[in-house]
Design brief:
The protein has about 500 residues and is α/β, with parallel strands linked by helices. About 45% of the residues are buried. Helix content is about 35%, strand content about 25%. The protein binds adenosine-5'-triphosphate (ATP). The site of adenosine-5'-triphosphate (ATP) has 21 residues, from strand 2, helix 1 and helix 15. One of its GO terms (molecular function) is ATP binding.
């Protein structure tokens, strides 16, 4: 049986100012297939899918959906054509309830006598949430009460309750916990089994090979290749297509030593946060990479905030013994050389509507000033140095962060803290959304920093990166430390999972 094309792009292009983000891309997605869209950070993946899903207008070129010319006016219009998207960042509206978020733009479904029947809307939302087993999510609650992960789950329902013909999943899996990821895979397969198609954008190449029926590779906004996935295709093949040359070199550390001999630079004593963390006692050593692992709800993300003085209602102490400082606020943390990169980068890590320069310089103002004056030249030099170090793909340092691709935003977060020259870096999900090549350079940089005597706390849901990089790994479950593992004793997935669940 010949395959039927669901969507086809013909010479599709998108220009933002002087940036040619997508250049005459022609590719097609068949009905009933999972199609991977891969490429380095900034290669145009999101821009293409944003055009397909009506988020961006098309600069030039055409799209055809089931053979018909397709020109979505906006996202709702795309939904009405059976096309939806789950984006990288949080995409729920804070002031609305769960149900109002799910049916946003389609409220007319529930209008009775000229007013919205909230009861009927909540009832319908309940039904859809139950299909996914999201029984802890209440349709009538304001969405703001839910975690990043739960809000992503609400978005899954929003994007699929109307049985889309085409679902786009833009770099979402790496933002989710193991369970959330499984739910998303289930959903993707469900759409496929019903004859729908899914475009998956992911930097996890193993995931792409396992999940997808075919793959399209982009490089610098151009279409490089589309091909079906076969058993012969390897991750290295994909990398080669992505960068245009053979790649060599190791990804993770190769040594098996646990570098924990240095003096204690941070000490947590009897830290408790009601309902989140219990009796946390932990020490971080100079030059160490301390991994924190667990399921997303384990308290691991909150532990990072505690180390940065960013959580209220906490008892116990977080201190820096060498400096004789107790961290009780973000201000003290920054002033004492502690940096923190949040998992929730758009809300907590960056000023989205400010320039790269403003973002990189903000936390280093004290370092940059001389006699109370900050020279614009020094700011520019400083920003250029760290943006270049992190390989940020940008027009120039005055570009707004909102105009950067997801992975490049993440690089700005890291550049900001590297520039500050902090002694302790608490990095929550540091390589989220980052392409394989830059990931390798971040791992290299982490090693370089520890050699300089800096200490790193790496909070991650990627077990392999924890195994690959940490001197010591602390595992949390239900807010408590359940295990501590040393690199030199051998870190393995089985051991870690044993303490996680
Ligand atoms: N709103 C915007 N304004 C200006 N430039 C933009 C905008 N959105 C994207 N770009 C630029 O378009 C190019 C492609 O970005 P895009 O987000 O499509 O990349 P991507 O392949 O999805 O990257 P990533 O893997 O990092 O998410 C980048 O150079 C980016 O800076």
């Amino acid at each position: 049986m010949s395959k039927e094309v669901l969507i086809r792009t013909q010479d599709l292009s998108k220009t933002f100012g002087t940036t040619k983000a997508v250049k005459q891309v022609s590719f097609e997605v068949y009905k009933g297939e999972i199609h991977g869209l891969i490429g380095e950070n900034g290669s145009g993946k999101s821009t293409i899918t944003n055009m397909i899903t009506g988020i961006h207008t098309v600069t030039s070129g055409e799209m055809f959906l089931e053979g018909q010319k397709y020109e979505p006016k906006n996202q709702l219009d795309a939904n009405r054509h059976g096309v939806s998207i789950i984006v990288q960042e949080m995409n729920t509206i804070e002031d609305l309830t769960v149900a109002e978020n799910i049916f946003f733009g389609n409220e007319e479904l529930f209008i009775r006598n000229g007013v919205i029947d909230s009861k009927a809307m909540n009832k319908k939302a309940r039904e859809y949430l139950d299909v996914f087993g999201f029984d802890k999510i209440n349709p009538a609650d304001d969405v703001v009460h839910y975690t990043f992960e739960e809000r992503k789950m609400i978005e899954l329902v929003k994007a699929t309750y109307f049985n889309p013909k085409l679902l786009v999943v833009d770099e979402t899996t790496t933002a989710l916990s193991h369970d959330g990821r499984e739910k998303l895979y289930e959903l993707i397969r469900h759409v496929k089994n019903r004859g729908g198609s899914v475009i998956v954008i992911s930097h996890d190449l193993q995931e792409v090979l396992e999940l997808c029926d075919s793959i399209t590779v982009l490089r610098d906004g151009e279409h490089i290749k589309s091909f079906p996935v076969t058993d012969e295709i390897t991750e290295d093949d994909l990398k080669k297509h992505m960068v245009g040359r053979e790649l060599s070199g190791k990804y993770y550390r190769e040594d098996t030593h646990s570098n924990i001999e240095g003096e204690v630079v941070m000490s947590l004593k009897d830290v408790n946060v009601e309902g989140i963390l219990s009796n946390i006692n932990l020490e971080l050593h100079k030059g160490e990479i301390l991994g924190i692992g667990g399921l997303t709800e384990s308290g691991m993300h909150e532990l990072g905030k505690v180390m940065f003085g960013a959580l209220e209602n906490q008892t116990g102490t977080v201190s820096l013994p060498q400096k004789n400082v107790e961290i009780g606020s973000i201000k003290t943390a920054i002033a004492s050389g502690v940096a923190y990169a949040s998992k929730n980068r758009d809300q907590e890590g960056l000023m989205i509507n400010a320039s790269i320069l403003d973002n990189v310089c903000l936390s280093s103002m004290d370092k940059l000033q001389r006699k109370g004056f900050i020279s614009p030249k020094r700011e520019r030099r400083f920003t250029n140095e760290y943006a270049t170090k992190m390989n940020v793909k940008m027009e120039n340092i005055n570009q707004f962060v909102s105009a950067l691709s997801g992975g490049n935003k993440q690089k700005v977060v890291l550049a900001k803290w590297l520039g500050r020259d902090s002694d302790i870096l608490v990095l929550d999900s540091p390589t989220r959304g980052i392409d394989v090549m830059v990931k390798a350079s971040i791992y290299e940089l982490m090693q370089e920093l520890t050699k300089q005597g800096k200490s790193i706390v790496m909070i991650s849901e990627e077990i392999l990166e924890l195994i690959g990089m940490c001197d010591r790994l602390v595992v949390l479950k239900d807010g408590e430390i359940t295990g501590e593992l040393l690199r030199e004793e051998g870190l393995s997935e089985e051991k870690i999972i044993h303490y996680m669940i």
